[in-house]
# Entry
Amino acid sequence: MWCDAIGDDKFMKASARDLSEAGVGLELPEELQVRSYVILRASELGIHGRASVRHCQRQGLKYIVGVEFSGGMRWKGLTA
# Structure
């Protein structure tokens, strides 16, 4: 979830890629502003919290968005 340019809440499913302790790469059909914040929720990956958009680059019809976890959030991997 994030707020768009006019302040409306946006919700979207995204494909996760390049997951690390400090952040994750997302594949989205829409551009996000660098330095904006998103709220992530992916129970299957053990992720729930806030992240800052660090980069957003168009790749074909999609955007590759790199976000850095914030507020002390860290990905600790999946537990068995």
Observations:
- Residues 2-69 form one domain.
- The CA atoms of residues 16 and 23 lie 10 Å apart.
- The chain has no helices and seven strands.
